[in-house]
Amino acid sequence: MDHTELLEEVRAALGTSALEPLRVGGQKMVYTSELEGVPCVVKIVPIPDTAHSDEVLERARREVELLSTVESPYVVRVLSEAVEVGDRPEVVCWVEELLDGSDLGDLMDTFPWQPDDVWALIKDVAEGLNACHELDVVHRDLSPGNVRRRSSGRFALMDPGFARHLSKTALTGVYQPGTPGYCSPEHVPGGHPMPASDIFGLGILAFQALTGRLPVPYNSNEGAYWDALRRADAPAVKTGRDDVPDDLADVVDRCLQRQAARRYLDAAELLEELQGFVDEGGTT
Questions:
Q1: Residue that terminates a domain, selected from 97, 122, 139
Q2: Which residues contact 224 (CB under 8 A, 6 or more apart)?
Q3: Closest CA to 130 of 206, 198, 178
Q4: Same-domain pairing of 43 and 81
Q5: Boundaries of domain holding 89
Q6: 7: alpha, beta or left? (left if phi > 0; alpha if psi -120 to 50)
């Protein structure tokens, strides 16, 4: 089946209008469309004709299962089941709500941000993570392409494609979860990502939004990167920007503690701390 025929099969299977490319390439193709007159996003994951086909298919199924279970304004909503297309099948596809705004990856040239914007980033992403952590799910890939800033200024969590249900058997295979530069110490081979790993990922995003740089840079040397995550402490955020308010710096620095037990253990604990700042008349 050629590409045009495949897209038509996907459109018919999902019941959407014509597909317009938004992002094509990599492990997932993304199109805009309409479902019953409502703008939406169609995501298509090619299934390789290799020994890893079952893993890719199961990962996509789990992503849709997770999104269909989470009820939160801080997590993108799924609007369909995962649908397989083709005899093998060739792809698995589904429909999500279309969020306005831009991914953090498209906003990096606007860094550094003002503290109030970073407080909003931390709170909203923590709310989205909490909706996952309450279901015993770890996102595992909290990178700029997976967080969207809405036109309202609020943030939403997307693409839990590497998410891990702690109560379910882990998927194994060639795909290492996480994005270089945005991994936690628990992402190092042999480690076991946990809710506190998502907190580290949120700390990375907040640190980068405040300073314009990564706390643990990735320079295309995977071994050196893993070693830095395993052995080195992230710099204090005030070393990159000394005008960051003390309470915000304390939150970001705690998120980036190398030892998981010294971070917020999950999003609920982080949100409890943020609520304490509100009760004391703080910024958040």
A1: 97
A2: none
A3: 198
A4: yes
A5: 3-97
A6: alpha
Report the CATH number that the domain containing residue 107 is assigned in CATH. 1.10.510.10
> How many domains is the chain built from?
2
* Dist. CA 66–CA 94, nearest whole Å: 13
Question: Same domain, yes or no, for 9 and 121?
Answer: no
Given 71, 97, 123, the domain boundary residue is 97
Q: Residue 230: name the closest of 264, 262, 260, 194 by CA.
A: 260
- State what percent of residues in the chain have pLDDT above 70: 90
What is the band of 174 on the pLDDT scale with cuts at 50, 70, 90? very low
> What is the per-residue pLDDT across 199-211, written as a single tens digit (0 to 9) for each?
999 999 999 999 9
Instruction: Report pTM.
Output: 0.90
In this structure, the number of other CB atoms found within 10 A of the CB of residue 57 comes to 19
Distance CA(38)–CA(188), nearest Å, equals 42
